């Protein structure tokens, strides 16, 4: 069989596997499927914010300040007359950007730190894990606040701080997976016949830790969005004026809680819905991808 035909067969099998997985998720995990739709809706609103937002995010209209829901402003306006729906839509772009980017760094740092520690073992593993123990011993939010106070406010700083901090804390998952893989017969056989370390990692280790890392990724996005909102709420996140859900809760949300409760209500609803949907989606993916849970899922 030619290489072209072999590639076509592999592509067809891959597509069939994706379709089968999607059908299985719809049948066995309706809540997870619905939450996946909600997440997709937020992602599309973030991508096409410039198209679907009714107003520019920083358009001021002091004459219409602190107005409730109306035909012109479906969710009302803030203290300087900016449309709240528009700022929520643009806020989804920032929140998802921070969540996805920081979680990507989480996974990379966790694999390099935890996976490398578990693969090398011995004194290296002991030394790395003691550093991880010391890191985890600090309260998470206090540690983030301390680092952000040193780096300063900014989108890039927040992504890097959340990514590295979460990666160190989550390094135990790939470490455990790698240690379990090292006990399998196929790994021992590869080492016995003299397979190179690089090939062993690429062929036997990395593919077998992808399922747990996909689960970690889907679950960690919501946590990073909440952490970013908490930092912005406390004044250590993004600069003032950026349409960030946490900042909207902290600034106009707190100041006008009684006279304009919608300024705090709708950003809180957005945070609740997206984090809940991401957690339920991650839980569904865990049940379907984790071999230890497949039997209970099918029953």
Please explain how this structure is put together.
With 299 residues, the chain is mostly helical. It is 76% helix and 0% strand. It contains 13 helices and no strands. It has helices at 3-28, 30-47, 49-52, 84-120, 122-137, 140-151, 155-169, 172-182, 185-192, 197-233, 245-255, 262-289, 294-298. Helix 4 runs parallel beside helix 8. The longest helix has 37 residues, at 84-120.
Number of helices: 13
How much of the sequence lies in strands comes to: under 5%
Instruction: Tell the overall outline.
Output: globular
pLDDT < 50 stretches: 295-299
Q: What value does the average pLDDT take?
A: 80
State the secondary-structure class.
Answer: mainly alpha
Task: Write down the secondary-structure element order.
Answer: HHHHHHHHHHHHH
Q: Note the main sheet.
A: none
User: Quaternary state, please?
Assistant: single chain
Measure the end-to-end span: 40 Å
């Amino acid at each position: 069989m030619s290489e072209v035909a072999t590639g076509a067969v592999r592509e067809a099998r891959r597509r069939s596997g994706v379709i089968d997985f999607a059908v299985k998720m719809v049948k066995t995990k309706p809540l997870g499927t619905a939450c996946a739709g909600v997440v997709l809706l937020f992602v599309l609103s973030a991508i096409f914010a410039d198209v679907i937002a009714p107003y520019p995010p920083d358009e001021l209209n002091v004459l219409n300040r602190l107005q409730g829901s109306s035909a012109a402003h479906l969710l009302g306006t803030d203290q300087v007359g900016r449309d709240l729906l528009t700022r929520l839509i643009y806020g989804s772009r920032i929140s998802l950007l921070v969540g996805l980017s920081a979680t990507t760094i989480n996974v990379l740092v966790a694999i390099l730190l935890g996976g490398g520690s578990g693969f090398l073992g011995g004194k290296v593993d002991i030394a790395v894990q003691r550093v991880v123990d010391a890191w985890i011993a600090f309260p998470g939010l206090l540690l983030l606040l301390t680092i952000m106070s040193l780096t300063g406010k900014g989108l890039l700083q927040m992504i890097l701080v959340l990514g590295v901090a979460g990666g160190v804390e989550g390094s135990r998952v790939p470490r455990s997976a790698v240690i379990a893989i090292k006990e399998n017969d196929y790994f021992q056989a590869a080492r016995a016949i003299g397979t190179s370390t690089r090939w062993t990692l690429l062929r036997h280790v990395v593919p077998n830790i992808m399922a747990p890392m996909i689960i970690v990724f889907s679950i960690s996005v919501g946590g990073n969005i909440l952490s970013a909102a908490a930092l912005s709420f406390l004044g250590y996140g993004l600069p003032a004026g950026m349409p960030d859900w946490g900042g909207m809760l902290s600034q106009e949300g707190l100041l006008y809680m009684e006279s304009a409760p919608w300024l705090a209500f709708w950003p809180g609803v957005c945070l609740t819905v997206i984090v809940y949907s991401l957690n339920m989606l991650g839980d569904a993916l865990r049940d379907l991808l984790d071999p230890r849970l497949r039997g209970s899922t099918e029953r």
